[in-house]
Amino acid sequence: MRIRSSASALHRPRGSRSPGPAPHSLAQRLREIPEVVEVLDRAGDLFAYESDGLTLLRGQASLVVFPTSTRAVADVIRACNEEGVPFVARGAGTGLSGGATPVEGCALIELSRMDRVLEIDPVNRTASVQPGVINSHLSELVAPLGLLYAPDPSSQTACTIGGNIAENSGGPHTLKYGTTSPHVLALEVVLPDGSLAVLGRRDGHNHGYDLRGVFVGSEGTLGIVTAATLRLLPVPEEICTLLASFSELVTACQAVSAIIAKGIVPAALELMDDRTIAAVEDSVYAAGYPRDARAVLLVELDGPAANVAAERVQVEGLLEASGAIEVRVARDEAERLALWRGRKGAFGAMGRLAPDLYVHDAVVPRTRLPQVVDQINHEAAVRGIRIANIMHAGDGNLHPNIPFDRRDPDQMSRVRELGAEILRICVDAGGVLSGEHGIGIEKRDYMHLLFSESDLEPMRWVHDVFDPEDCCNPGKVIPVPRACTESNPRHRGYDKVEF
Description:
The protein is of the alpha+beta class. The protein folds into 4 domains: about 5-110 and about 445-490, Uridine Diphospho-n-acetylenolpyruvylglucosamine Reductase, domain 2; about 115-235, Uridine Diphospho-n-acetylenolpyruvylglucosamine Reductase, domain 3; about 240-350, Alpha-Beta Plaits (2-Layer Sandwich); about 355-440, Alpha-Beta Plaits (2-Layer Sandwich), CATH 3.30.70.2740. It contains 17 helices and 19 strands. Strands 12, 13, 14, 15, 16, 17, 18 and 19 form an 8-stranded antiparallel β-sheet that branches. Strands 5-6-10-8-9 form a 5-stranded antiparallel β-sheet. Helix 9 (about 250-260) runs antiparallel to helix 14 (about 370-380) and helix 14 (about 370-380) runs antiparallel to helix 15. The longest helix has 20 residues, at about 410-430. It is globular and about 65 Å long. Mean pLDDT is about 90; it is low at about 1-20 and about 480-499.
């Protein structure tokens, strides 16, 4: 593993290397690389790749290249470096922070064709996969073996393992099983200079610096993951899903704290408000949620059958004591899956509310949820904006969804203002900027709310050791000094982002 660590590399201003224009020769060079199956460089073909799931922020790549192997990724990166062209990795494009948004003139390295499951080891409960494997496909593949891959983002039927690793993605079951990081044992990565490194060990027994941990959640800024060995877990003996309805959102939040305070750690504790309920029930994801409720709480318990039975009795009592209007237990697997179909389809159902949707993501201490939700709803009302709240309430991860119409400049301005205010409210409450969507471009310029310059400087050091030329997904995560954006066209348009 080659990592440059010279003083000049550590102190070079980010963005100091200006990219040359992407020549037609680069596209031709990439087409000649074995195991590159396609290169797109026509304007009409590039349009679909201008953004990830955060469609408010767009960039224009010079080309999109589809490698199918680690060697091909390394060859692509070396060619980009020789031509002076920055590069950005992309999986399924479901990210919501602009992490895969192209920087102007970059080569977009599309990893969706690297979708092979390399090995399943049921004895050691591991799976080795390429980055383009879809999250849910892995669990479906290992289910007959009595195993599962625990991280389950709401976009799991579309998002890829590589993207999950880049963002350290979570999901509804993060409360019990954690985010992606603890489920990653080892990574094969191509570094920004085109060299190859293996980080971590398949058996999980690591020594020295935890560089695997550094890469998970680095949002594609330190290199590109080309293979991963993942931890698999046994399917729980018993799963019980409950749906509780409430007359007030704040009461539902208080019920969450009551359950955790009792020492019970459900597999999931998901909260949806009345606007979300209406959107889901009016869509193809209709799950039978009560339309007259102001909020519903989806609670899932799993584990040994006797433990689940005992916890179910306790949870039902706590929900009723907290003011639940009704507590319903899924009678069978079909009803359980229907309840989850509504929850995981909620973001898609929001398309009924407005042409555009800004999906926010922040975390606050669980006990502060009622006050924070009240503040956010107040700030939205002051600006004439109605939001739909979805939360991984068990770990305090809020997703205020802001429907809007980008054709209305005044509304756009109010949405931007509200987005920034939500971050301030959450940080002031002792929270953080993101639970699972990452920083990307969206929150990069709000890092100062949480970190001082002396906090950010070590992050820049780590980045510059791996990528001293700032060629790998530049302009993401760490705030870019204005002097660099003025001198380097690769960051143009990203020097100030409203949200």
